[in-house]
């Protein structure tokens, strides 16, 4: 069994939620999901957009990972990607966690 | 190929290259209750009766959003003086804009903050002139302004908005910088812009009274860094912007002229930046042309795109992609020629004008001017700074 290398701060039972300071939406003109905040915008890449869509303050990291693994069965285990993104997003204060 | 065909082709190529006007600044009215001497708005002001109607603004928002605009700032003057502000917020928010209110805080009430929230307003930015009532109200030219701003900032946070505080720094208030940062913490601001005035409009007339000395700035920057260290990642994010007069390279013009930023003035003029009206160019009006035509095809918006317009030393300079030759308005104000290299650049033959300005600010020879006619003074906006935060 191979254990994926994941950042230690993120645990599967943690439930992330969007910092209310940010707004998450699809931008047609940019052809991607974005985070909007006072006078600014961050464009998210495809993977980040997929993860962010599932963040609703109710689903925990495990649930989010399962959903994505089902949605992209050929992509291999997505846990490391999910953990890495959520870790970065918390550092950048886009996300809060319980 | 005929000339016409060549022109058409060139037009198409231009519009294909031009990205969307991501940032739309809607200057709703020139009317303002304050009288700041650093006001960066044009010194000749229009009458309020020529202001765009609610319907006309709706159309502007629709067209800009279709092009891909995403950030919308409501400013003025004082945008709260527009009775249809809530309607404008609601309409644009429903279109998917991130809506920013840029206000002096005068005319705001707890109730109105609530009504704007209901309409979908995303964020409120309040400008301050100083860290205590005496200095703030002396600069703003109005008693009680400080207390009003203070109370409203509290209420903005209490009602759950992200909040940006904007302190316009000048030699009149730079010594208060530590108090300003403490006040920002007390008010629980999310971002704080500590920005020296841009010297356009009224601020240019009053430059000798506003421009700090290099020593003052160095000291202020040291205090900001010291304060940041004590914060340990908590509290407001402080953004300190020094005037470009003390640099040897100019600031980039808004990400490039006509690249990101579109201002629509109260009477419907469309500008690549809020100061551009001073330039000897004819700018289009949203009453006559769609935002798409303006952005993609208008002569004035295209005029300083790319580097064809550049004279030397900019044209042959390997830094032109970084700063686009600097600010057109500054070049025009200081040299009388809007094409020239921004005098802030040490490669400019006009660079001595900057040193002269710094020297002359050490001992001002004329009294400070305050705009009182038409009660139309505008609070400062630091759009250049704001755009720096738009990561695109
Ligand atoms: S840098 Fe100067 S020319 Fe460019 S947008 Fe700002 S004021 Fe206008
Ligand atoms: S010469 Fe022009 S392009 Fe080069 S650094 Fe100076 S302003 Fe910028």
TrEMBL record, chain B:
Pathway: Cofactor biosynthesis; pyrroloquinoline quinone biosynthesis
SUPFAM superfamilies in alphabetical order: Radical SAM enzymes
List of residues binding [4Fe-4S] cluster: 32, 36, 39
Tagged with keyword Oxidoreductase: yes
InterPro entries linked: 4Fe4S-binding_SPASM_dom, Aldolase_TIM, Elp3/MiaA/NifB-like_rSAM, PQQ_synth_PqqE_bac, PqqE-like, Radical_SAM_PqqE_MftC-like, rSAM, rSAM_sf
Catalytic activity: [PQQ precursor protein] + S-adenosyl-L-methionine = E-Y cross-linked-[PQQ precursor protein] + 5'-deoxyadenosine + L-methionine + H(+)
Cofactors named for this entry: [4Fe-4S] cluster
Cofactor comment text: Binds 1 [4Fe-4S] cluster. The cluster is coordinated with 3 cysteines and an exchangeable S-adenosyl-L-methionine.
EC nos: 1.21.98.4
Domain Radical SAM core as annotated: residue spans: 18-234
CDD domains xrefs: Radical_SAM, SPASM_PqqE
GO biological process: pyrroloquinoline quinone biosynthetic process
Nucleotide-binding listed as a keyword: no
Assigned protein family: Belongs to the radical SAM superfamily. PqqE family.
Record function comment: Catalyzes the cross-linking of a glutamate residue and a tyrosine residue in the PqqA protein as part of the biosynthesis of pyrroloquinoline quinone (PQQ).
Quaternary organization: Interacts with PqqD. The interaction is necessary for activity of PqqE.
Protein name in the entry: PqqA peptide cyclase
Source organism of the structure: Colwellia ponticola
